[in-house]
């Protein structure tokens, strides 16, 4: 099961913030991240990872349903690379210090 935005709001609420303040915090954080990515800036969250905007060139592609060849337009995509600390926590949860 995926962690949803409302789940994150609930966890922030458990830290002692009001429900409205928790929503405002999460919405504000997500808006900052979205705005920076829209401007082409990378977002580095220390100990978590880095969101990067990559430019993809126009290229040949194929419709998998029909097999038809087509040209894919140039576009920007967001990639995520987790930090070494997060990778270690995921791979060795018993060694992580909470």
Automatic annotation (TrEMBL):
Annotated TM spans: none
InterPro entries referenced in this protein's UniProt entry, alphabetically: Hist_DNA-bd (IPR000119), Histone-like_DNA-bd_CS (IPR020816), IHF-like_DNA-bd_dom_sf (IPR010992), IHF_alpha (IPR005684)
Cellular component, GO, one term: cytosol
Keyword set, alphabetical order: DNA recombination, DNA-binding, Transcription, Transcription regulation, Translation regulation
The keyword Cell inner membrane appears for this protein: no
GO molecular function: DNA binding; structural constituent of chromatin
Annotated GO biological process: DNA recombination; positive regulation of metabolic process; regulation of DNA-templated transcription; regulation of translation
Classification via PROSITE patterns: HISTONE_LIKE (PS00045)
Annotated family: Belongs to the bacterial histone-like protein family.
Name of the protein in question: Integration host factor subunit alpha
Source species of the chain: Desulfonema magnum
